[in-house]
Design goal:
The protein has 22 helices and 24 strands. The chain is an alpha+beta fold and 635 residues long. The radius of gyration is 43 Å and the shape is elongated.
């Protein structure tokens, strides 16, 4: 017998119960202690009987014992969870149920307790895991989110909030994910890719903050599907790459400036040669002793010199232009021919150039200025590796996507255009080759290189979804191979090919707006010699006034873009207000693609690049207003 239950003898049944059964008097002294209590707490009955239950078991929950007593006195029962201590000092959690007769002040108390330590430990472990996961998600630098297939954002972490400049998660949840993409088309393509492949990745995805600021991210999208295979949700993970992208833009511009500085001496030398040629032959034509048969040859040389100078100016402007990538159709072979001519004029004469251009390389979709910069950087490095002279070889060819995929993961295009730039210079060791695409890595002396050239090459090629490869051995030269994806598209008409047909008997008067006096006089002389009536204006305000006076007589306006008093674009817009059907050709020494697109949308018929051949200008004039009446009568 382990104790007496008041006057009731203890039942053998209580000894078979696994739970702890304890009977205490009103003061808490233990009167009964079953075998379940001994198993749970470790105290044998002879050591437990007569001791205070709270002191023995060390009920450590603050105020719990007092709460138990108060509830028992008021209601006669209590149940709940308690943390207690075993004989060995180990903490245990129990679920206890206490009962007492309220009517009897000295009635004994029955306490039945079950061991729930494992469950409480599991709950604690789960809370720790949940807390670690919450902290992991909240403190993660990656923007994590879940959206429905219609773009509604269901949840996101704080990093997502920070990346897009939201004030809170609640503000994010009221936003549709597609509004953060550059276009709705981008959103549709992403969802379609997830539906088809279940996972979609983007190495570089341009997105937008609600205020319109661009955000560049590396992204991974994973779809969740129902039992019918329908897409229900998309989990997204965005790594903010905006800072690196902005730095890349700055590096590209810095490298352009470095390239221009490198070429400045050679260009100045070449321009002086061009001016000397023009001046020499012009003086010869001006002399009284020139023979008639010499005139065509002299004119031809002057024309070629002007074209050579114009090409150099265009290359300089292309290199200096700071703008985001503008992808357009590009003839790769023509780009290399133009670059070779430019380098022939600016690099030391001890360096030879060779072109091995593949005949079947189709047009690429690429940014001409950026690819020009890539090739220029490679050539400048090749020049520096050949201080005593050598050879630079340009090669182009078409290779299959499978061949490229053998060397590069992520090569998905069916075809790639390969550009090879080979030199006969000093080459590189394997150690140097392993670092060449790292920003600021350079083997050049201090102040002779920034170490940005090849990192720019890598960044631009990667931006074109291409790949770059280098082969080099010490004293064996270096070969850079660039692979750019070929996108087969329908050929577009060249700029200006869609010039509207002239109406019959269009007015034959031409208004020439040009602030350069000699060029204006020359235009007057040539156009009048072709039989056209010509009006000439020296600035924008004079042009607008002259057009207002002769609007019904003027069939075509040839207007310079950079004019004093009023710019060429504003001149055209005022003329259009005066006469909505005004026809104009705009001339400029350099026309940004965005500005050209803007003025063509405004209604300008065509543009022409300065310095232009007057034969080209006359061809454009005839396509708009036809031949002059005087010329028509004298075929």
């Amino acid at each position: 017998m382990r104790g007496e239950l008041g006057a009731i003898p203890a039942s053998e049944i209580l000894e078979q119960i696994n739970d702890s059964v304890i009977v205490c008097d009103a003061s808490g002294r233990i009167q009964y202690w079953n075998s379940g209590s001994e198993k749970l707490y470790g105290w044998p009955a002879d050591e437990a009987l007569g001791r205070n239950v709270h002191a023995l078991l060390g009920t450590r929950l603050s105020g719990a014992a007092a709460d138990v007593d108060d509830r028992l006195a008021a209601e006669g029962h209590w149940q709940g969870e308690l943390q207690q201590v075993t004989r060995s000092g180990a903490a245990v959690w129990v679920h206890s149920h206490c009962k007492v007769e309220v009517s009897a002040l000295d009635a004994p108390r029955l306490v039945i307790s079950s061991d729930i330590t494992e469950r409480k430990d599991a709950e604690h472990a789960l809370r720790c895991i949940e807390e670690r996961y919450r902290r992991f998600v909240d403190e993660d630098l990656t923007g994590d989110f879940i959206v429905r297939s219609d773009g509604a954002i269901l949840t996101c972490n704080p990093a997502f909030v920070r990346i897009f400049g939201f004030s809170s998660v609640q503000e994010v949840l009221s936003t549709n994910f597609t509004s953060l993409l550059r276009t709705r088309k981008d959103g549709a393509e992403l969802i379609a890719a997830v539906r088809e492949h279940r996972v979609a990745e983007r190495n570089e995805l341009e997105m937008r903050q609600p205020q319109g600021e661009p955000v560049y991210v590396a992204a991974r999208f994973v779809g969740s599907f129902d039992e019918h295979g329908e897409l229900t949700e998309v989990q997204g993970y965005l790594f903010n790459d905006t800072r690196r992208k902005r730095f890349e833009h700055q590096v590209i511009q810095a490298q352009k400036m470095e390239g221009l500085g490198t070429l400045a001496g050679g260009i100045a030398h070449d321009f002086n040669n061009i001016l000397a040629i023009i001046l020499g032959y012009a003086s010869q034509l001006d002399s009284m002793s020139v023979r008639t048969e010499q005139i065509p040859g002299a004119v031809k040389v002057i024309k070629e010199a002007v074209e050579r100078g114009a090409a150099l100016v265009q290359q300089l402007l292309t290199s200096a232009r700071q703008a985001e990538a503008r992808f357009a159709s590009l003839d790769l072979n023509n780009l290399l021919r133009e670059l070779e001519k430019m380098l022939q004029a600016t690099f030391p004469k001890t360096i030879d150039f060779k072109l091995h251009l593949g005949p079947h390389v189709p047009p690429l979709t690429a940014d001409r200025g950026q690819l020009h910069q890539v090739l220029l950087n490679l050539c400048v490095n090749a020049r520096d590796a050949m201080p005593h002279g050598g050879t630079i070889v340009f090669e182009t060819s078409l290779v299959s996507g499978r061949e490229v995929a053998e060397d590069f993961t992520g090569a998905e295009a069916e075809e790639y255009a390969r550009i090879r730039v080979r030199d006969t210079g000093s080459g590189m060791t394997p150690e140097v080759r392993s670092h060449i695409f790292e920003p600021f890595f350079t083997t050049k002396e201090r102040a002779k290189g920034t170490g940005l050239g090849l990192s720019v090459v890598y960044g631009v090629v990667n931006n074109h979804r291409g790949f770059v490869q280098v082969e080099s051995e010490p004293e064996q030269g270096t070969t850079f191979s660039i692979y750019l994806p070929v996108l087969r598209q329908r050929e577009h008409l060249p700029n200006g090919a869609a010039i509207a047909s002239a109406k019959p008997r269009e007015p034959q008067t031409i208004l020439v707006v040009e602030d350069e006096e000699m060029l204006r006089d020359l235009a007057l002389q040539i156009l009048e010699g072709e039989g056209y009536r010509v009006l000439a204006a020296r600035d924008g305000l004079e042009a607008v006034a002259m057009f207002d006076e002769h609007r019904d007589e003027i069939g075509l306006v040839i207007c310079d873009l950079g004019l004093p008093k009023l710019g060429g674009r504003d001149v055209f817009m005022r003329m259009k207000e005066c006469k909505p059907t005004v026809r104009a050709i705009v001339a400029s020494g350099y026309l940004e693609p965005s500005i050209r697109s803007e003025i063509l949308k405004a209604g300008v018929i065509d543009t022409i690049q300065k310095p232009y051949d007057f034969r080209d200008l006359l061809e454009k004039i005839r396509s708009v207003i036809g031949d002059a009446v005087a010329k028509e009568s004298h075929p």
